[in-house]
Amino acid sequence: MRALLLACLILAAAPGRADGALHSLWELHGKHNTVYLLGSIHVLRKRDYPLAKPVLDAYADAKSVVMEIDLGELDLDTVQQELLSSAQLPDGKTLTQIMGNERYARALRLARELGFDLATFDQFAPWFVAETISQLQLAQQGFQPESGVEVYFMEKARVDGKEVTGLETAHDQIALFEAMPLDTQAEYLLSSLEEAHGLPKEANDMVRAWESGDAGWLKAQLEHEFGRDPKLYQSLLGARNRKWLPKIEALLQDNKNYLVIVGTGHLVGQDNVIELLKRDGIAASQR
Prior knowledge:
With 287 residues, this protein is of the alpha/beta class. Helices cover 50% and strands 10% of the residues. It is built from 12 helices and 6 strands. The longest helix has 22 residues, at 230-251. It is globular.
């Protein structure tokens, strides 16, 4: 599940792609403008660049860029302080207690197999432990936030003088995990550790599917990963898609073109943004 979350909270193309290939890029048309929807992977490797020409062309055609979060306005110290505060368990609670003896013993063994000691995370919420271990694993494979799609386009927009705005805030995203019941978090951590050995392959497969705009593969993987917990899916994806919909539709009333960049997981699967737009009579064509 952790690799898949790269596409939920996450386009790059391999050099030499055929001109007719699809990408994780969709195009909407208003009366006087075009809105591009670009699926993103939030962390990538340097070798996943350069980006495909249609993606770069969409950016060049857009006057403004809209992301999940406006990274340029983030106060990193404040965000980190809020993140750590939210990740701390309530007084008197420990990870061992939250997990329970049986789950904790299994989680402890699985973490040790990966080279991590859960004892160092005993004061932190299970969701934070899962995300931290995931990020450390992915970093070992060369996946870095500074190589992610959002950072790449944020830096380009800064140089080119293009406006960047966000659909939500860092606080909104932190609150998603903070609102998870502790038992749900415990299951989330355990399932993440159970799948950890397959993470490198899963991440590679995801990048390949994302590079080729394989919405079918991404949808199937999304349904597989979240099948055991539909409520988690709705919290991390469905509810946010519906919240973003009016903001995206409003862009179609403007006169200038936009590039909207959201995690690829928001553009496939149940109640995805493309599907919700279609229900409102707005067609989106994949490029």
